[in-house]
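Marked as duplicate of an earlier ticket. Keeping the data here for the record.
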Amino acid sequence: MSKPAIIEQIANSLRQLKALSRSQKGKEILTFSLFVILAACIWFILAINDNRESTVKIPLELTEVPNDVVLLQDLPPYIEARIRDKGASLLTYQINGISPIKIDFNSHSNQRDAIVLGSTSLVEHARRQLRATTTIHDFTPDTIRIAYTRDKGKRVPITIDGNFTTSPYSTFSDSAYTTPDSVTIYGKATTLNNITAVSTEELLAHQLSDTTYLKARIKPIDGTRLIPDSVTVIVPIEEYTTKTLSIPIVIEGAPNQYTVMTFPSHVTLTCLVPISQYAHIVSDDFLVGNTFDEIQSTPGANGAIKVLNAPHIAHNIILSQDSVEYIISENINKNTTPPANNTQQ
């Protein structure tokens, strides 16, 4: 919409309002609106001067923590207090917030293994952040205890609790792993002595078609602190590619006095292999053919062939044919009778 059109629309709206204000109905609406606004103002003035109750959150901060101290628990982010004061004061708390309570580590540490703040101490801290006219009725938590340690901790490996699957044309190129591969765990010596590894929280990822990076938290252990408490899980994935090879046909288990020849002598084999292994897969990795006894049991001069051996990374193996013609011949200087059936010389 062009600028002149907008100006014209505003002018029309103002003319309509002016006409409405001059009508009897418009005057009634205007009078009613003024009374509503006046009533709201009176209610607001009375409300902010009355004593009322409200629930507020007072933030907590821990200061002056020595560098050699590791907290085994987190300080609660705030205490929730039910207070009473005039409405104006409560409104100020809601608009401006309340300054955090700063807890000095050195003032509340018992010099052994915990920071302890009882209800009396918490009330004193809270009062300093509130107006003198404000009354605290109750608050939660009413006691805070944060365990800590000065021990160096223990480095432990990470195991992955995960279930991963790939898409039909992808595969795992390696086992999933984490970075970093270990974490430092802090706690009492009696607890750490029984811990040899930590585990990620359960991870599920399906139909993966490319290397995947997942953020995972470490399962917490009561009474300890993990640094870091989360790691990156890497699931290496690569795509399959098609490999075509010419494989010699082998008949296994033929007696020494016989030679078995197949027509053709080679068969074309097609399979899917990981891209990274494409150049490493060769025809010698496969064994295609059958056993002497099995082809003998087949009527006629054709015998079935199949894949007898293949590398585990080859999938969807297909042969260009599933049977071949064969001839069984007696070796020279062997005075033995060739087996009956399916024998040609």
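See parent ticket for discussion. The chain has four domains: 1-49, 51-150, 154-235, 240-330.
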